[in-house]
Specification:
Blueprint lengths: L3 E6 L6 H10 L15 H7 L2 H6 L2 H15 L6 H13 L23 E5 L7 H7 L3 E7 L2 H5 L5 H6 L13 H23 L6 E5 H6 L1 H12 L6
Parallel strand pairs: 1-2, 1-3, 3-4
Helix pairs in contact: 2-4, 4-5
Length: about 230
């Protein structure tokens, strides 16, 4: 049986943690190195790196996706893949904590669900590459109201990726100026993501944060139906 893969992305602070907890409660393997927000830190190390992103080729991104897949599926990395993972760990300017990964791990996938996945807001930056790389992947994109996001304290994506949308930060902005730029980033990045995922149709689920909060059972049922595999709680 082929595995189903689930990825959760959004602008940071959109409520991805709550959705990740749903999958964890269902017994889905979401990674063995998670922070308090349930981010998959291997994905963070490999991909949350704007310096690497600026010069990386299609092949560079696919190499790191292959490393990520092999690690998550319990497959041993070859020498070049291990070296690339080492490089990612040592050169990531956004993640300074040194983590050790068991490169000979096995048995993490829950065979009853046959699903693995991850949650990391920066997934949205690589959504096209990810959806093309994983034919069996289901992507959940969480949308929270732009005004909520404008005044969120989580502006890491703005700091790391604002340049992709022509948004520059001087470091001297006051609270209101940051909110304005955060809203601009939300608008531009959301339009970009929605345009990219439009062509994938059945592989994508847009989840409204407000509905998830006010109608959790209905939205969780949508998630389970979207994944397409019966899961016993």
């Amino acid at each position: 049986m082929s595995k189903t893969i689930v990825a959760i992305g959004a602008l940071g602070g959109s409520g991805t943690r709550a959705v990740a907890k749903v999958f964890l409660e269902m017994g889905v393997f979401m990674g063995d190195k998670l922070n308090i927000s349930k981010d998959n830190l291997l994905f963070t190390i490999l991909f949350k790196n704007p310096i690497w992103y600026r010069t990386s080729s299609k092949e560079d991104k696919e190499l790191r996706l292959r490393i990520f897949q092999k690690y998550m599926e319990g497959c041993e990395l070859n020498l070049s893949e291990s070296n690339e993972l080492d490089k990612a760990i040592s050169t990531n300017p956004t993640f300074k904590k040194r983590l050790n990964f068991n490169l000979k791990q096995t048995g993490y996938i829950n065979e009853k669900t046959n699903i693995w996945g991850w949650k990391e807001p920066n997934t949205q930056i690589f959504v096209s590459e990810i959806l093309n790389f994983f034919p069996q992947l289901k992507y959940i994109h969480i949308l929270r109201h732009g005004i909520d996001m404008a005044f969120s304290n989580n502006n890491q994506q703005l700091n790391n990726w604002g340049w992709k949308y022509g948004i520059e930060l001087s470091g001297n902005e006051d609270k209101n100026q940051i909110a304005t730029k955060q809203l601009e980033y939300w608008v531009k990045s959301t339009k970009d993501v929605l345009a990219k995922i439009k062509v994938f149709n059945e592989k994508v689920l847009i989840l409204n944060h407000s509905k998830f909060c006010t109608q959790p059972q209905q939205e969780i049922d949508r998630i389970i139906e979207f994944i397409g595999i019966p899961i016993k709680w």
